[in-house]
Amino acid sequence: MRIPADQFQPFLDQVGTLCHVTYQEQTSENVSEAYYDAESRLATQRTKLERLQNLLAQAENMEDIITIESAISDTELEIERLTGTLRQYDALVDYATVYLSPPGGVPALQCGGAGYQLCKPHGRGLCLWLAGVCC
Predict the structure, then answer these.
(1) Phi first, then psi: what are they for 17, rounded to 5°?
(2) Is the Cβ–Cβ distance between 29 and 117 less than 8 Å?
(3) Interatomic CA distance for residues 42 and 80, integer angstroms
(4) Are 128 and 108 in contact (CB under 8 A)?
(5) In terms of Cα–Cα distance, which of 24, 15, 23 is closest to 115?
(6) CA 26 to CA 122: how far, in whole Å?
(7) Are 17 and 9 in contact (CB under 8 A)?
(8) How far is residue 129's CA from residue 110's CA, in Å, rounded to a whole number?
(9) What is the pLDDT of residues 17-42, one digit of tens each?
(10) pTM of the model
């Protein structure tokens, strides 16, 4: 489950008061270097695309046009890939991922009591999950 980063600690605190937590582990990953590397490669690819488009405008024979258009296509694909990578890193920074594993599976319970209060801000589906963990 994904929790906004600024709500992560309050969420953990609330789970700890409502549930018997048998195991908890917190890890983090510094993605700064990878992020800046992807940003740099994206800028390079955008510059390359601009140069290829200028070359295409000056191309005079069909063979050059086909070669340059192929290179443009490859460069655009790499730009899309790097843009997606940066969006993924942005999502990693903005949200915390929480894994809940209730013993014995998740029973089909109705929302109610403390489980509902914990889950209400996060949506009804989560409420059922946490009602199974807490009750």
Answers:
(1) -85, -25
(2) no
(3) 9
(4) yes
(5) 15
(6) 21
(7) no
(8) 10
(9) 776 777 777 777 788 899 999 999 99
(10) 0.60
- Give the DSSP H/E element, type plus range, for residue 2: strand 2-4
Instruction: Find out whether 115 and 127 touch, Cβ atoms under 8 Å.
Output: yes
- 3 state SS of 112: coil
Sign of the CA dihedral with 19 first, then 25, 30, and 31 last: negative
Four-CA torsion 124, 91, 106, 129, nearest 10 degrees: -30
In sequence order, what are the beta bridge partners of 2?
A: 97
For residue 38, which amino acid is it?
A
Contact assessment for residue 79 and residue 52, using Cβ atoms and an 8 Å cutoff: no
Left (φ > 0), alpha (ψ -120 to 50) or beta: where does 110 sit?
A: beta
Q: Which three-class secondary structure state does DSSP give residue 75?
A: helix
Tell me 120's DSSP state. Answer: G
pLDDT of 80-105, one tens digit each?
Answer: 999 999 999 888 777 787 776 665 55
